[in-house]
Amino acid sequence: MIPEFNLAQAIGLLSFVLGILCFYQRDDQRLRIMMVVMNLNHALHFALLGAVTACLSALLAVVRTGLSIKTRSRNVAYLFIIITLLLGIALADVWYDLFPIMGTCIGTYALYCLSGIKMRVAFLLGAICWLTNNIIVGSIGGTLLEATLLVVNCITMWRLYIANKIEFP
Fold first, then answer.
1. Residue 2 CB-density burial (10 A; 0-12 exposed, 13-18 middle, 19+ buried)
2. For residue 15, how many C-alpha atoms fall within 13 Å in the half-sphere facing its CB?
3. Minimal CA–CA distance to 64: which of 99, 110, 100?
């Protein structure tokens, strides 16, 4: 079944564009700033789709990503992971509501505890969780976003690998 195209889907397509801009960044700080903007848009998209746990996960991602610009505290990461798990499980209606929760937890760990290529590998795992969620909830832009991010993120990792290999023979 093909989802109906409406305002929610249009906002999802904007998330698609913002996500491409986000993960194309080689600078970790710029990536985080763009991620805040993308997740704000994504939260609105999921709210309009009626995907409560995905909306909550996107809103938590806004706050945790914003804080990750200022701190890399593992304690903050663990606090956000616990909050995400508790709120997500409390709001989950069906088992597949856990996909955005898992994706958010992985993304939280990546933002606070990892950097460079390792951070982007974790983002790949989170993207798989979000891709699964987006297919299930019928998000056209979200599905395009995560599928594309898998490719863009791999390209960026390759670029980082090559840059590091040249700098550090």
1. exposed
2. 28
3. 110
The structure's pTM equals 0.82
Structure tokens at 121: 């590998």
pLDDT tens digits, one per residue of 146-158 = 899 899 888 888 8
- Identify the CA nearest to 134 among candidates 3, 5, 6, 32: 3
Per-residue pLDDT reduced to its tens digit, 29-88 = 888 899 899 999 999 999 999 999 999 999 998 998 899 888 889 999 999 999 999 999
Question: CB-based contacts of 81: which residues, under 8 Å, 6+ apart?
Answer: 105, 108, 109
The residue behind tokens 């700098």 is 167
Distance of CA 151 to the CA centre of its chain: 14
